[in-house]
Automatic annotation (TrEMBL):
This is G-type lectin S-receptor-like serine/threonine-protein kinase At2g19130. Pfam families: B_lectin, PAN_2, Pkinase, S_locus_glycop. The keyword Secreted does not apply. One of its GO terms (cellular component) is membrane.
Amino acid sequence: VLLDNGNLVLKERPDSPAPIWQSFDHPTDTWVPGAMVGMNKITGEFQILTSWKNSEDPAPGVFSHRLDPGGSNDYFTLWNGSVMYDHLGVWNGHSFGLVPQARLSSFFQVRFVETRERKYVTTILSNDSILVRLVMDVTGQIKTWAWREDEQIWMLIWSRPVAQCDVYSVCGPFGICDLSNLPSCSCLPGFHPKSLKDWNLSDWSGGCVRKSQLQCTESTNPVKSQADVFSEMPNIKFPTSSQNLSVADADECRLACFNNCSCSAFAYDGVCLIWNGQLHNLQQLSAGDGNGGSGTLYLRLSAPDQTHSSGKNEVPVVPIVGSIVGFVILSSFVFILIVYRSRRRASASMAEVIDGTLLQLKYSMLQQITKKFSVPLGRGSFGSVFKGELPDSTAVAVKRLEGLRQGEKHFRAEVRTLGTVQHVNLVRLCGFCSEGEKRLLVYDYMPNGSLDSHLFRREPPCLDWGTRYQIALGTARGLAYLHEGCRECIIHCDVKPENILLDGSYQPKVADFGMAKLVGRDFSRALTTMRGTIGYLAPEWISGLPITPKVDVYSFGMML
């Protein structure tokens, strides 16, 4: 029998009280409300969500989500059943410690249940008319989807980890993840996909293989050797499972790797690190975005193939080279001219947006005031934020946007909204940088951080009631100004504690307008793209009802 909640039940007879087998006890990659994911204490059996191999093959993949086998009330997301790269945090009676917003969901309630026989987590729908499912996706992310009846499509409302590159070994061995590219996975130099068919289906787990095998010729001077070479790769988050060696300098570290046939790469920054065998979990970082566990990686490759021609079949090289050089110069000139004109048009368009009220800053200056982005304040789905100091000693926060398409949309949304309005309860946008593909925004620095860091902290001091009231009232004033006080109504679309910043006096500032929408006063229709964060989303986003400023009011109420 297939029940209304999606549970497929096998019974001996229709009136049998207990099923012989039911699908809720044996989940695949999908978890629906009412199902239980946990363990049977009597049999020791776990219910585990396991990803598909790829988008077309339901065979088990390498990613899974399960209750901590060590006995805690935490849920782990694993690679290959062994490497834990994300977890929800221990259940505290109301929510999992690292996802407190889940308790505020308008779609379902999360419950953790422990009895003598079982221990599991389940969800109960707040509205039976809403269809919601959670999937252990082939990307290695846990994703929650909701059904949009009006458009007949599934809409993504939540994912964890947020960033694709935070998934362990998402690109497989010898693959590298880069958030600024789509797709985010590619092969290291000198490698190609092990299975191009799998890569075309977004299954990168097989990773990459070498185009040419290593020669592995021992030498006391690898620089002069005609065998293997090392390719320099800056701004890399290092692979896992490195080995430390005691050496005198970088040359000795290089030689130690060169003379070890198993060594695939090395790094040296006062300490010699080498990696043997396959390289997993590499990530390309933006300049200045590195921290511990990142730097310049030297990748071992086979020496480039040399082609030699001789005799009557030898082709003259000089004319060919001259033709190629001439063609490249001409093509480069045309390309530069096109890019220059397009950037002039883009700059003119942006100049109309900012109307002379913002500072247009050079990237070199932002590098200088942030000390090469050395003091990180936080990181979100659109980029990283760093502390800086202007020449007049004014502290600022510099947001560096990442991802070409998403970053550009976020950048323009922020400038179009914050660049044209000012209010005591809105964070002030001081300036911006738009050079080539670089997009940065400069704000007033908020010394007390974001509201979520105060609401969800376990250690004292807690915010007193007077301060909480001040924050709630100030946030309401900021939103009211966006809705009623501007020439065009501005819907923020992502009101949550993380987007409420606190100045030195704990005065709130509504921030992060990357999802904001400028609409007319009589605007009332469904938007095609869902915006916001699960736990704070108004029901209109799911049901397809017209979107109005009330969606911000709903999110404010959930935050309150």
